[in-house]
Each structure stands twice: as C-alpha cells, then as structure tokens.
Amino acid sequence: MSSMQELFEDCVKDIYSAEKQLAKALPKLAKTAKNPRLKEAFTTHLEETNIQIKRIEECAKALGIKPTGMVCKGMQGLIEEANEHIGEEKPGPVTDAMLIGLAQKNEHYEIASYGTMLEYAKCLGIYDQVQPLKENMSEEEKTDKLLTELAETEINPAAAQAPAEEPKKAPAKKPAAKSASASKSTASKSGGAVKSKVSVR
Ligand code: FE
Ligand code: FE
Fold first, then answer.
1. 179 domain-assigned
2. 90 by DSSP, 3-state: which?
3. CATH number (domain holding residue 39)
4. Closest alpha carbon to 124 in 116, 132, 134
5. Residue 89 within any structural domain of the chain
6. How does pLDDT run across 123-139, given as a tens digit for each residue?
7. How far apart are CA 179 and CA 198, in angstroms?
8. Taking the C-alpha atoms of 135, 41, 112 and 75 in order, what is their torsion angle to the nearest 10 degrees?
9. Residue 193 resides in a domain
10. Do 2 and 56 touch, CB atoms closer than 8 A?
11. CB-CB contact of 26 with 75 (8 Å)
C-alpha cells in the first residue's frame, strides 16, 4: 500500500466484508433474543445492514473499484467469539444482556471503521463520493444507542433479577417461613434453627 487512496480503498473492502459477515450473523442474534424489542432491533438492523452493503457497493462504483477480495478479520473474530457463546445459553434476560454486549462490540467496530474512513475521505477530497458511508455510520450509531437504551431500561435490570441456575442438590434445611427478611441463605438459615430450638421449650 503506497497511497492514502489505496489505504481508503482497502478500508472499503474491509468494511464491505465486515457488513457481509454481519448480515449472516444477525439472524442468529435475532433468533436467540427473547425480549421482543431486542429481537426487533436485530431484525431491523439486519434490513439496514443489507442496505448498507448496497451503499458500499455504490461508493466502490463511484471510486472505480470492486469492494470484494478482502476478509475482515476483526469482524470475523467478533463473530467467532459471539458464536462460541450463543447456543449454549438458555433464552432469557441474561442471554439477552449478553447478546447486547456482543452486538455492541460489532457496532463499535463499525463506528470506528466508518469514522476513520470518513476522515480519510475528507482529506482525499472524495467526501462527496462516499456520502452513503455517512448514512451507514448514522445507522450504526442509532443501533448502538438503541441497544444501550434497551440494556439500561429493560434487559440488564431483568437480568440482574433473574435467578441463577444452580445444579439441584439436596438443600440443607428449609429456613422457617416466618423469618421473612431481606437477607437470605446462611443468615436466615441459622436464624431459623435458633428459633425452632427456642419454640420447642
Ligand atoms: Fe453495518
Ligand atoms: Fe451495524
């Protein structure tokens, strides 16, 4: 690579590959999500991603290059990592919280890529030719904000409330039902034991 123009063209190819990989990965995120708003967010972003791919093709055409021929290893790694997590998990708020985290890594990666490209384009005097990339970036930012909003208002609080899945082993003793207080487990167990002793006499 010898010129900034070539550097820019490589970025076009790289983000094209990234978007194409994401278009393949998003249906799995949508399928795994349980929260209906999260599911919808992924489905909507899949539709947007398909349009983004077309926009990159437009830009490539305007620049007289082909957008193909490169594999975005960054996005490949993020998707590989996501795939390792998805599938093992049971659908529910904790998995939804995890999906948001995985998806936001993708969005941030894209935002960084488009941000860099638009700055290059300004310096190269090709900003007008690559205007569609700005629309792509806006959609990534909008998606990122929506995911943050979903996490903060619904999904993370629900995940925090979700009971941990523990392997079912014989529980020691059931604490006395009357000792209802905020603190659980060991404190109420010993409290219950003491109380029952007292009440016998
Ligand atoms: Fe995208
Ligand atoms: Fe995106």
1. no
2. coil
3. 1.20.1260.10
4. 116
5. yes
6. 999 999 999 999 999 99
7. 14
8. -120
9. no
10. no
11. no
Model confidence pLDDT, tens digit, residues 24-43: 999 999 999 999 999 999 99
| Residue 198 domain-assigned (yes or no) | no
- Dist. CA 173–CA 192, nearest whole Å: 9
Taking the CA atoms of the chain, what radius of gyration do you get in angstroms? 25
Q: Residue 133 CA: which ligand is closest?
A: 1
Instruction: Name the token pair of 158.
Output: 């629900």
Query: What spacing in Å lies between the alpha carbon of 136 and ligand 1's midpoint?
Result: 6
| Structural domain range at position 113 | 4-158
Closest ligand to the CA of 140: 2
pTM above 0.90, yes or no: no
Whole-number Å distance between alpha carbons of 164 and 190? 22
Q: How many residues does the chain have?
A: 201
- C-beta of residue 117 within 8 angstroms of C-beta of residue 130: yes
Gap between the Cα atoms of 126 and 129, Å rounded: 5
Number of domains in the chain: 1
Q: Which residue has the tokens 């049971």?
A: 90
How many whole angstroms from 26 Cα to the centroid of ligand 2? 9
CA of 141 from ligand 1 middle (Å) equals 10
Residue with tokens 């996490």: 151
